[in-house]
Design brief:
Number of domains: 1
Number of strands: 5
Order of helices and strands: HHEEEEEHH
Largest sheet: 5 strands, mixed
Helix content: 25-40%
Radius of gyration: 19 Å
Number of helices: 4
């Protein structure tokens, strides 16, 4: 067999195994899969997820369980990214899996700071990020297959509503407020 044929076969097998792994990952008991039927199409699921995320819906809430393939693998939120906007720039929708590339206009990150972590801290970081969201079709509908812990991305106008603490690290409230 030619090297190119062997390489093509290996790549094909790897993609099949990865797709099967994602589709059946929800069966893992540590996954804490939310067995509630979702009637969203792949596009509706990602659009609804992005809307809720930008409103701060996943900062202090377990609502992510309705969207994640394995919510049990998601950590708790002690930080979130502040964004100025987002848009879906690319999509590939299939019968069993789909992918969406979302471009975020990031302003910075709010995290816990101070000596004992009881203050808000803002780290300014203006940049555009493209994030790939992979979705898998389960018997209960479409779910997002997060390979890493999801860090919420909240629009600047909604960020103050979901701040984790009342007070700020000295000088960082002004930095945060300058991002209006």
């Amino acid at each position: 067999m030619k090297f190119a044929n062997v390489l093509a076969w290996i790549l094909l097998m790897a993609s099949i195994c990865t797709a099967e792994e994602s589709v059946t990952a929800w069966k893992d008991p540590e996954c804490s899969f939310y067995k509630k039927q979702s009637n969203y199409s792949a596009r509706q699921l990602i659009s609804t997820f992005l809307k809720l995320d930008s409103e701060g819906g996943f900062v202090n809430s377990a609502k992510i369980e309705e969207f994640a393939l394995c919510p049990g693998h998601q950590g708790g939120g002690d930080s979130f990214e502040v964004i100025n906007g987002f848009s879906i720039v690319k999509e590939n929708i299939g019968k069993e899996s789909s992918e969406f590339v979302v471009k975020f206009q990031k302003l910075g990150t709010v995290t816990s700071g101070g000596r004992d972590g009881s203050l808000n801290s803002f780290i300014k970081s203006q940049q555009s990020d493209e994030v790939l969201f992979k979705l898998a079709k389960t018997p209960f509908g479409w779910r997002i297959d997060f390979k890493n812990t999801h860090i919420p991305k909240v629009l600047r106008k909604n960020a103050e509503k979901v701040l984790p603490h009342k007070d700020w690290v000295k000088g960082e409230r002004q930095l945060f407020e300058s991002e209006r």
